[in-house]
Amino acid sequence: MWLFRHQTAIEKAEVHIQKTGFITEDTWLILGPFDNAGGIGYHKAYIEEDAMQIDTSEKYDGIDGQISWQKSEDDMLNGYISLGDNVDWGVAYAFATVTSPDEREVLLKFDSDDQGKVWLNGEEVFTNTGAHSVRIDRYTIPVTLKPGGNSILVKVCNEEVKWE
């Protein structure tokens, strides 16, 4: 990816990424920020966390008033999604649907800054209670995709500084 970017061949990089099974930043819908004061957000469900679908028109009470699902505005294909600048002690959700041609075992690679949870098709498949900066592919989660659409919901609870 770096080589393609260095040579200003962004279109080639994007084509290559699409072939790898990478879920690109522009695929995700983002909802947040919710309150995480004192770390309350990890155990508090601000939405139905085992949902397999989302209603993009539904409004929620966030830190700064009413919020709704928004398409990720992070358009740099680098494996990171910024969930907010200058937001300490916040919670955000990210949702994507991926399509599989058949049932197959795959490795879902993930990390979060700070605590995180991942659900696949409504089933919690990963939790991280640690507080650390994000590192791409820190965790590998073996999961089985079903044929057709598969929903992925991610929850990220930020403490301070970067939120990815």
Describe what you observe in this structure.
The protein has 164 residues and is mainly beta. It is 10% helix and 38% strand. The chain has two helices and ten strands, in the order ααββββββββββ. A six-stranded antiparallel beta sheet has the order 4-1-5-10-7-8, with no helix packed on it. Strands 2-3 form a two-stranded antiparallel sheet. A two-stranded antiparallel ribbon has the order 6-9. β7 and β8 (123-128) form a beta hairpin. The two termini are 19 Å apart.
Which helices and strands appear, and what pairs or packs with what?
Layout (H helix, E strand, L loop, with lengths): L1 H5 L3 H11 L8 E7 L24 E3 L2 E3 L2 E2 L18 E11 L3 E7 L4 E6 L2 E6 L10 E7 L2 E10 L7
Antiparallel strand pairs: 1-4, 1-5, 2-3, 5-10, 6-9, 7-8, 7-10
Main attributes?
single chain, 164 residues, mainly beta, six-stranded antiparallel sheet, two-stranded antiparallel ribbon, 2 helices, 10 strands, 10% helix, 38% strand
> What order do the helices and strands follow?
HHEEEEEEEEEE
**Number of strand elements:** 10
Q: Report helical residue fraction.
A: under 10%
Rg, nearest Å: 16 Å
Structural class: mainly beta
- Secondary structure tally, helices: 2
Strand order of the largest sheet: 4-1-5-10-7-8
Mean pLDDT: 86
Strand composition percent: 35-45%
The N- to C-terminal Cα distance equals: 19 Å
Biggest beta sheet summary: 6 strands, antiparallel
Give the uncertain stretches in residue-range form: none
- The shape, in one word, is globular
Summarize, please.
The protein has 164 residues and is mainly β. The protein has helices at 2-6, 10-20; strands at residues 29-35, 60-62, 65-67, 70-71, 90-100, 104-110, 115-120, 123-128, 139-145, 148-157.
